[in-house]
Design a protein that fits this description.
Blueprint: H1 4-28, H2 32-63, H3 75-110, E1 115-119, E2 125-128, H4 130-136, H5 148-151, H6 155-163, E3 170-175, E4 179-188, E5 192-199, H7 201-237, H8 242-274, E6 283-285, H9 286-301, E7 306-309, E8 315-318, H10 321-338, E9 344-351, E10 357-363, H11 385-390, H12 397-407, E11 411-416, E12 422-428, E13 433-435
This protein binds adenosine-5'-diphosphate.
Adenosine-5'-diphosphate (ADP) binds at residues 334-335, 338, 363, 365-366, 368, 376, 381-384, 388, 393-399, 422.
Length: 455
């Protein structure tokens, strides 16, 4: 209101001045009244012209980008410009704040590990994050406003979207190559829909492995149980001679042992999976371990093979003795079981240049064809099922070995060729290897005796 009084004063002054000048001019032409009237009108006209000019400047500024400030006038126009400018600046600030919040919200959805896709009532893509783009092979920018059903053509997805029944998620197998997606749709707003996608490939793979595992275990246990049931029936229904009875009991004992080994290996695997990583500061003497593995191998072979075990390595390994022993013993047992009589088996240690080491078990057995190598450590995978079972194998040995070595930060490598024997290597990292006097083991070669471990 502080502009009103000055403005009224200016208007009054303009009219008074106009009237005075008009009256002075009117005296000259003997028409003082007309002069006064014209003078007052000129005063008002001058005021209107000044207003028109200042109003025009303000409108020009409003029509433009309003980057600079509003025209700095005094009075009514100054106040009007100032108030409009302030309203515009406040609106811009609120808009920027909302924009920022929207960007933050979109960045959060963008960072989500799940795919998020928004569809309008015509199934057109309103927005989608990078993960959804990846899941459905969409371009989050290029494909905006496109109908999703024109771009994602899996029949299961299209009919799920169109059916409108979204209580259960849709499992989209083989989407994006070999992946499996779990798709959830939620309706919101007026006909809008939110499509959420989650990559469940790993979960499905684990679930299918679990199913296979249970089926395999059931099968492995059912076979000896069926055989045992047959023997029990035979013994209870047929009159057997003493020799026959002994033979049947021996066979029953074999089947029982087979089940025991299976259960024991399963328990070992379960323990390995459920226990924490072996401590890096519990040191196990390798020489004692090799000695024990050697004598167990000798006992199993019963003189059918020539077994050489490296001695005097002076090395200690950090880990769990029972696990390391079980890993090497499994390899030696396999070597004895699969190598024909008269073959050679060698258990050795080699220090590696990086401070780590390699424990190896090699044999002159039948070897393994290349196509089987990548699958050997799978549970129950056998190259020759009947040979494995005949010799008391459970199909879990190499799986246990791999687990043990991985838990110790190492790796199992298998080198084999049909007719040329096999070599299984346990590679252990430097942090788990030291010489017996406590020093790290760098590039030291231990001696392999000509004939160690006693043939
Ligand atoms: P299994 O109890 O059947 O021996 P493993 O997991 O120990 O189970 O071994 C998996 C398969 O790898 C075996 O069935 C066998 O076919 C093959 N294999 C393992 N060790 C040897 C070896 N030293 N020589 C030849 N084949 C082997």
């Amino acid at each position: 209101m502080n502009w009103l009084v000055p403005r009224l004063l200016i208007a009054a002054l303009a009219v008074a001045l106009g009237t005075f000048v008009g009256s002075w001019a009117g005296n000259w032409s003997s028409l003082p009244m007309l002069g006064e009237l014209l003078g007052a009108a000129s005063g008002v006209g001058a005021l209107v012209l000044a207003d028109a000019l200042r109003g025009h400047r303000l409108i020009q500024w409003l029509r433009g980008s309003q980057q600079g400030g509003a025209p700095r006038d005094s009075g009514l126009w100054g106040e009007l410009g100032y108030r409009i400018e302030r309203a515009i600046r406040e609106r811009d600030k609120a808009l920027a704040r909302e924009q920022g919040q929207l960007q933050q919200f979109l960045s959060a959805i963008e960072a989500s590990p799940n795919g998020v896709l928004m569809l309008d009532e015509h199934d057109q893509i309103v927005w989608c994050n990078r993960v959804a783009g990846d899941h459905f092979s969409l371009d989050p920018i290029r494909d905006l406003r496109q109908r999703i059903t024109n771009l994602v053509r899996y029949p299961a997805f299209v009919s799920y979207l169109q059916a409108g029944q979204y209580a259960e998620p849709l499992l989209l197998a083989n989407a994006r190559g070999r992946a499996t997606l779990s798709v959830i749709v939620r309706a919101y707003g007026e006909g809008m829909r939110l499509v959420l996608s989650l990559d469940v490939t790993e979960r499905e793979r684990a679930e299918s492995m679990r199913r296979d595992f249970v089926a395999n275990v059931s099968h492995e246990i059912r076979t000896p149980l069926t055989v045992l049931t047959g023997f029990i029936e035979t013994m209870s229904s047929l009159p057997l001679t003493e020799a026959e009875r002994k033979r049947v009991l021996t066979l029953m004992d074999q089947q029982t042992q087979r089940m025991l080994s299976l259960v024991s290996d399963l328990l070992t695997l379960a323990t390995l999976e459920g226990s924490p990583r072996p401590a890096p500061d519990r040191w196990v003497a390798l020489d004692a371990l090799l000695l024990r593995v050697g004598s167990d191998g000798q006992a199993l072979s019963a003189g059918r093979h020539r077994i050489r075990v490296q001695q005097d390595t002076q090395v200690e390994l950090a880990g769990i003795e029972a696990e390391l022993l079980s890993a090497v013993a499994n390899l030696v047992t396999n070597a004895v079981r699969y190598t024909p009589d008269g073959g050679e088996i060698e258990v050795g240690w080699r220090a590696l240049g990086d401070g780590g080491g390699e424990l190896s078990v090699s044999d002159t057995g039948p070897g393994i064809a290349r196509e089987h190598l990548p699958r050997l450590t799978e549970r129950f995978y056998r190259v020759d099922g009947s040979r494995s079972r005949e010799t008391g194998g459970t199909g879990l040995g190499l799986s246990i070995v791999k687990h043990v070595v991985q838990r110790h930060g190492g790796e199992l490598q298998i080198q084999s060729e049909p007719g040329k024997g096999s070599k299984f290597r346990l590679l252990l990292p430097a942090v788990r290897v030291r010489s017996r006097n406590g020093e790290a083991e760098v590039g030291v070669e231990a001696a392999m005796p000509e004939s160690g471990g006693g043939d």
